[in-house]
Write a structure and sequence with these properties.
Distance between the termini: 4 Å
CATH architecture of the largest domain: Sandwich
Shape: globular
Structural class: alpha+beta
Helix content: 10-25%
CATH class of the largest domain: Mainly Beta
Number of helices: 10
Radius of gyration: 25 Å
CATH superfamily of the largest domain: Immunoglobulins
Strand content: 25-35%
Length: about 400
């Protein structure tokens, strides 16, 4: 592939290919996050000791050399692309290093929020606001009868202090597909009761539990909080996801074993509604609590007690030079709400859903599994039990062959 120096479109296409369009059929956003963490993985590899940094893989002396190749290229040449692919494919796509900078993966259920400007009704939104607000919640999703909890803080921007809003209501609405129907309202207080951490700190805590299990309680719900400050009315909104049906349940039973130099931990899951599932978990070093890796299972699970093997790739342990016991944490997952098996996707693409007789409904695209909030500690392992080999697979070969062919 030849790109002229002045071709901006061509350069953008190459960048898109290098950073996001890595081959494979995985369309989950978590893989995109892993791909975007290439630079973080380079920093991780820089900490490797000298006895491991000299290993040669397909003509590159180490990830340090890969980084230099990438940095020296002023344009995304085939050499730069090859270096990017080499760096990414040190590990398989379903088993990646986990670092302290990957905040969304280290605390995957926490709602990541920002401070936003607050305008009263009729106020010119182009002008500077007087107040700002921020919601915080320990979880962006709930399942079944779980309690959704969120807190709201409003601050005076000029004075830099928290102000006390006069809360009028906290109404929860269904998703757009079900017509934004009004559901049961959330409760709230700043009196230190229930989930509120501290009384009279001007931070109100809201709690909501679904009032039913029918369709309107499923999907991207929205909580709208109406309040007054000095007699002026304001509104702040927060979205969250709710799955009323329990499609699966983690049983707290785990199998662990070594296979091909990688550690596999397989949680048992009671599948109540079969289908395509994504199951994820993080691994930490027990002694140091250093993050080790993040792995996911992506596949079909039939009703009944099933296992979802999570493979923690052996090379990751060597890159960190950590052995001993490990802790599986943040076990979570969801069921993809699609009316066919992923294995039939080609048929669907060719024939269409209607010709295959598949009934489609205007429903959310996933159903969450209630998180398993307990830790699982493995037996003790020696570093030599893990493989030093970098990942080799058809997807890696395809990526490199595409660059070579270009």
């Amino acid at each position: 592939m030849q790109i002229k120096p002045g071709s901006i479109i061509g350069v953008l296409l190459i960048l898109l290919l290098a950073y996001w369009a890595l081959p494979g059929n995985e369309d989950d956003s978590r893989v995109n996050r892993a791909r975007a963490s290439l630079d973080q993985e380079v920093q991780l590899q820089q900490q490797m000791s000298a006895d491991r940094s000299g290993s040669e893989v397909m003509g590159f002396a180490s990830s340090m050399n890969l980084k230099r190749v990438i940095a020296q290229e002023s344009a995304p040449t085939p050499e730069a692309l090859r270096a990017h692919y080499q760096l990414y494919y040190r590990y398989p796509k379903n088993s990646r290093p986990l670092t302290k900078s990957m905040v969304d993966l280290l605390d995957p259920m926490k709602m990541q929020t920002s401070t936003l400007p607050l305008y009263k009704k009729g106020e010119d939104i182009k002008g500077p606001p007087s107040y700002q607000f921020q919601f915080n919640s320990p979880s962006h999703s709930i399942t079944g009868s779980q309690l959704f909890i969120a807190s709201l803080e409003v601050r005076n921007i000029a004075e830099g202090v928290a102000v006390r809003p006069d809360i009028k209501s906290a109404k929860v609405y269904s998703d757009f597909a079900s017509g934004r129907q009004l559901l049961n309202e959330a409760e709230f207080n700043d009196s230190g009761f229930d989930e509120d951490a501290r009384a009279d700190d001007n931070i109100f805590t809201f709690s909501w539990r679904a009032g039913g299990k029918d369709r309107k309680y499923w999907g991207d719900l929205e909580m709208k909080v109406i309040f007054e400050i000095e007699g002026e009315e304001y509104e702040a909104s927060l979205g969250f996801f709710h799955s009323p049906e329990l499609v699966a349940e983690f049983l707290g039973v785990f199998d662990e074993y070594m296979k091909d130099g990688s550690l596999t931990i397989a949680p048992q899951i009671d599948i109540k509604k079969g289908g395509h599932f994504i199951i994820e978990a993080n691994l930490f070093h027990e002694e140091t609590q250093e993050p080790i890796g993040w792995a996911y299972f992506n596949g079909e699970l039939d009703p009944g007690v099933q296992q979802a093997p999570l493979i923690f790739f052996g090379r990751i342990f060597h890159d960190l030079a950590l052995d001993g016991k490990f802790v599986l944490r943040n076990l979570r997952g969801f069921r993809n709400n699609i009316p066919f098996k992923l294995g039939d996707m080609q048929k669907v693409a060719e024939q269409g859903l209607d010709k295959m007789g598949i009934e489609t409904k205007d429903e959310p695209d996933k159903e969450m599994i209630a998180n398993y909030d307990q830790d699982y500690t493995t037996q003790e392992y020696k570093l030599e039990q893990f493989s030093k080999q970098e990942y080799q697979g058809a997807d890696k070969e395809k990526a490199l062959s595409m660059v070579n062919a270009g």
